[in-house]
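Late entry, guanosine-5'-monophosphate complex.
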Amino acid sequence: MSVRPIVVSGPSGTGKSTLLKKLFAEYPDKFGFSVSHTTRSPRPGEVNGKDYNFVTVDQFKELIDKKGFIEWAQFSGNYYGTSIDAVKRVLEKDNKTCILDIDMQGVKSVKKTDLNARFLFLAPPSLEDLKARLTGRGTESSESLEKRLKQAEVELEYSKEPGAHDKIIVNEDLDRAYQEFKDFMLANE
Ligand code: 5GP
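Prediction complete; structure with ligand written out below:
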């Protein structure tokens, strides 16, 4: 039987990608990333097929119609989705622990599936800090920034609900957060 998948969520800009990159670099044979589909444009440095499968809205909708997604959602004006194939590839072909980086809607959807995932939430020290990080990253238009900050508040509220996540890590200090992150990841059954 394969190990339980791990769902990492948390507001855009909290450092999920940074922590995941460190983890994949340290444990390349142990963890595999579920590469989502998205209709948003690639950011500088993002690689198609590695960070995301970048697709058009038509291609995305085609996959919805074909029932190719485990879950999908609209976030900040774009479509994002976890395909059945993306998870299968990690679990069956690569035989690694599958990690999903998805938003709160995805978390709720995955809870309704039989994936039996564990849920980790990464929180910013504060909303002000998150705003500063997202602004500093320079990847978002002011419209996208506003949408992401609004969504961050919703995600933080949800994270306070009992049982929403198995573990919450506040990313204040990167090294400390990574240690906690790693401990949770390696505690898989
Ligand atoms: P970004 O555009 O910053 O890469 O991602 C925006 C949000 O979409 C993040 O919260 C990220 O976790 C989420 N996301 C990425 N892939 C998926 C997916 O396949 N499904 C869902 N529901 N959310 C996703």
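Helices lie at 16-26, 57-65, 84-93, 104-111, 127-137, 142-159, 174-186. Will revisit in the morning.
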